[in-house]
Every structure is written in structure tokens, then in C-alpha cells.
Amino acid sequence: MVTATETPGAHGEDSPRESSPYVELDRATWAMLASETESPLTSDEVARLRGIGDQLDLAEIRDVYLPLSRLLSLRVRAATALHHAQQEFLHGLTPPRTPFVIGLAGSVAVGKSTAARVLQQMLARWPEHPNVALVTTDGFLYPNAELVKRGLLERKGFPESYDRKALMRFVIDIKSGKDEVEAPVYSHLVYDVRQDQKVVVKKPDIVIVEGLNVLQPARVRGDGRVGLGLSDFFDFSIYVDANTNHIREWYVDRFLRLRETAFRDPDSYFAKYAALSHDSAVDEARRIWDTINGPNLAQNVLPTRSRATLVLRKSADHSVDWVRLRKI
Ligand SMILES: Nc1ncnc2c1ncn2[C@@H]1O[C@H](COP(=O)(O)OP(=O)(O)O)[C@@H](O)[C@H]1O
Ligand SMILES: CC(C)(COP(=O)(O)O)[C@@H](O)C(=O)NCCC(=O)O
């Protein structure tokens, strides 16, 4: 028997206490949901998936990601059955197959990319859906030259810094079952979109779309009409969450580590920071956080959390403390 908090309770703030659409489970209760399933990843594989500063070990895989991959696999199977039933009803008016699309949102430096890579690997081990693609939305940022033209270079990551039409087209093409869909690629090293590179998604069973703003609702147009938003095409969505003060510390710590590694590359946009003293580097990282990533989190990212099907809440050491699931 699994016992859980019926309302968002101490951690939630997104809905009234009665008839909450959410159920909140502490880590131990969530872990029990997959207690009889064997973890498909070895400790070497887990080490390869770990991002800078992330706390990811076999216990995290077993307690947090195994129940999630079971739940997702169950939902993929149900979605496939529903698609087939509807296709029969519509006499083939719908595409013969449509991938299961997972949106994965959260702040800069919260560990979205590690969570997405882990899920990709774990979901690919299920024989029913071996082809799991991962696409990050940073490829859809406008190139720096265009951001400069629009006066948006200091707003990288804000909703308006993306080519939202192209991102929407990409997800619609994926959901329409196109055999091959291309996405642009962003390089953190050069801090810009790579004009010479593309990622090709071929006949995927599952696509994970990871990015800051994937849960943003559709915009109201000038004439008052509301179109479709990206998340209207998601079969499931995940928000990676943590206390904002912790995320700010993780961002600064990561900046200091990158200063010892990636920033040393002469091609790095941040090469100018490699020579900074420790204290000046901390000041610079805090400045970037306090002027760009922090305000974007508060104004655009965090307000979308209540839209997620699942919230993974991390504690100060990066391990997931509790999980909140939309139960209806
Ligand atoms: N300036 C940088 N140079 C090299 N790699 C970076 C830089 N900034 C971020 N990264 C890497 O890019 C990935 C995505 O980072 P980010 O968008 O902050 O999302 P998250 O930390 O939630 O995965 C991470 O693996 C991070 O380590
Ligand atoms: C590239 C990002 C906007 C993240 O994009 P995402 O993949 O979430 O769409 C972000 O990592 C970033 O570079 N922000 C700008 C400020 C900074 O350098 O941290």
C-alpha cells in the first residue's frame, strides 16, 4: 500500500487544497512503486551520464528514475493503443504512427540535461520503444547576430529569444510521424547556434524535448485569438525543480568548474573568464545569474511549474527529495 499526500501540502502552492489534481510522494514512497524492477544501468553508465556538479548515483537511478521510466513506459503503451483505436475510427485520417513526446522543463543549471540523458537511456532499454531521441530547445535560440539586432543578447533564454515558430513546426512535424525531422544545434562553447550543424531525428518512438520554456502556454495574438502552444503536443511533461537559492549556488559552482575546464578552450566565448581570480569569477557568475537567468526563472520558467505532469524536487545536494504527480 502506498500512502501519499493528496494535496500539494507543504511544498505546493499551485492549487486549492480540496480536490487537488496533484499527489505528492516522498522519495521512499515513490521508490516503492518500482521496488521489484531491476535497474538497467551500470555504475559506469551512470557516471557517464552525470553532469557537472550533479549528484547522480545508482541509488538515484533506482529510487527516482526507475519508477518514472516504468510510469512512462506504461503511458507510452496506452498512448499507442489509443492512437491505433482513433486511427481505425478515422479510417486512416491520422498518421500511422506518432511518437510519444515528453517535455522537460526547469531553470538554467538545475540539471535538466542530466535528467533528460538518464531518461533517454532508461527508456531506450524497453523493447517496445528502443528509439528515444533527445532534442534541446537551445538550438532554436536566434543566432547571436539576430539577438543583437533585436536587442536581446542580454535576454538569452527568455521566451522572445527563441524562434518559437520554428520550434513549434519541429514538434508538429515530429508528432505528425514524419520519418526524418531536423533541428538546429546550439554550442555552449561558442555561445551561439551552429550554422554548420543539424541534428536529425529519424523514426523515433519517443522524443524528449528539453528546455527552459517548453511549458510556456500559447500566446494570445493581437486579434485576441489563442493558438496552440508547444505543450499541447506533449504526452507527458516533467519540471525539474529546486530552491532558487540552491540553483543560484549550483550556477556559480558550475561557472567556477567550467573556468578550470571548458573556458580554457581558446574557442570558448567565455575564454575571457579563464584568467579571472576566484573572487572576480564568483562576482561575474552572480552578475549573469542576477541579471539574466534568475529573472528568467522567476518571470517565465517557475510560473509554468504547475502545468507539468510531474515535478522532481531536488534538495541542496542535487538528490530528489519528493515527487509531485498530476493524478487526474
Ligand atoms: N559556458 C558553458 N560552457 C560549456 N558548457 C556549458 C556552459 N554552460 C552550460 N554548459 C553545459 O550545458 C548543459 C546545459 O546547461 P543548462 O542549460 O544550464 O541546463 P541544465 O543545467 O539544467 O542541464 C550542461 O551540461 C552544462 O554543464
Ligand atoms: C542556452 C540557455 C539559454 C539554455 O537554453 P535551453 O536549452 O534551456 O533552451 C542557457 O544555458 C544560457 O546560456 N543562458 C544565458 C546566460 C548564461 O550564460 O547563463
From TrEMBL:
<comment type="similarity">
    <text>Belongs to the prokaryotic pantothenate kinase family.</text>
</comment>
<dbReference type="InterPro" id="IPR004566">
    <property type="entry name" value="PanK"/>
</dbReference>
<dbReference type="GO" id="GO:0005524">
    <property type="term" value="F:ATP binding"/>
</dbReference>
<feature type="domain" description="Phosphoribulokinase/uridine kinase">
    <location>
        <begin position="101"/>
        <end position="245"/>
    </location>
</feature>
<keyword id="KW-0418">Kinase</keyword>
<feature type="region of interest" description="Disordered">
    <location>
        <begin position="1"/>
        <end position="22"/>
    </location>
</feature>
<feature type="binding site">
    <location>
        <begin position="106"/>
        <end position="113"/>
    </location>
    <ligand>
        <name>ATP</name>
    </ligand>
</feature>
<dbReference type="Pfam" id="PF00485">
    <property type="entry name" value="PRK"/>
</dbReference>
<keyword id="KW-0963">Cytoplasm</keyword>
<protein>
    <recommendedName>
        <fullName>Pantothenate kinase</fullName>
        <ecNumber>2.7.1.33</ecNumber>
    </recommendedName>
</protein>
<keyword id="KW-0067">ATP-binding</keyword>
<dbReference type="GO" id="GO:0005737">
    <property type="term" value="C:cytoplasm"/>
</dbReference>
<comment type="pathway">
    <text>Cofactor biosynthesis; coenzyme A biosynthesis; CoA from (R)-pantothenate: step 1/5.</text>
</comment>
<dbReference type="InterPro" id="IPR027417">
    <property type="entry name" value="P-loop_NTPase"/>
</dbReference>
<keyword id="KW-0173">Coenzyme A biosynthesis</keyword>
<keyword id="KW-0547">Nucleotide-binding</keyword>
<dbReference type="InterPro" id="IPR006083">
    <property type="entry name" value="PRK/URK"/>
</dbReference>
<dbReference type="GO" id="GO:0015937">
    <property type="term" value="P:coenzyme A biosynthetic process"/>
</dbReference>
<dbReference type="GO" id="GO:0004594">
    <property type="term" value="F:pantothenate kinase activity"/>
</dbReference>
<keyword id="KW-0808">Transferase</keyword>
